[in-house]
Amino acid sequence: MTPADIESIERATLAAVSPQSVEEFPGWLLPFDSGTVGRARSAVPLRHAAQDASLLGQIESRYRERGLPAEFRLPATTDFSAWCVELRARGYQRTQPTLVQVAATQDVRGVSTHAPAQVDEAPDEAWAAVFLGEGFDPVDGASRVAALSRAPGSLFASVRQGGKVLAGGAGAFAQGWASVHGMRTAQSHRGQGLAGRVLAGLADAALKRGYTRTFLQVDAQNAPAIALYKRAGFETAWTYEYWRKP
Hints:
Layout: H1 3-17, E1 21-25, E2 28-32, E3 44-45, H2 55-65, E4 72-75, H3 81-89, E5 93-104, H4 105-109, E6 118-120, H5 125-129, H6 138-150, E7 155-161, E8 164-174, E9 177-185, H7 194-208, E10 213-219, H8 223-231, E11 235-244
Parallel strand pairs: 9-10
Antiparallel strand pairs: 1-2, 2-3, 4-11, 5-10, 5-11, 6-7, 7-8, 8-9
């Protein structure tokens, strides 16, 4: 990843999760949001080169002024070792390692030989319901639906049966990238290739719009999802971790 790629992915990420507001800070993006989506509420650097850890206090002040707890999303590189030391000293804890993965959109399109998912320009209640079903946190699900639904220009993919959405996801387009977010499959229908059809549907829509590169972010512990994404051609560009106070 070039420095320009890193910055464009971070900007595209916030465009997709649509925080309630975003502030530009030298070398950083500071999203402010009262929901549960970590990417929509965590300060993130726009470059992976070493930065002055004295900025940490200034960023904390920005969040205090908004009445929100400061959270940080940092690449797991040695360039941020001084930040990690300072964050620990201030009572933050490292959590939730997440992989940023990239792929050629054409490869993503080929992940499924079955009919691609239906893709719509707006979410409906059936699409939202898959985030609230058995096995999912309803509060977090509602927050994710709200965030993804706010993003302008996003598309909403679903595999349906009898009016019910069995699997769904969202696709966003910004900064020269297509991106995949909110992948969900109903517990009772996992292992049937439905998530692959969602990926294929979103990739098909991205190709029609001229987007040849796609990225997504996945929890490093989510082995089934990582296996699917590998079959779709995704490779890890970098890993980041959240820093939060308990």
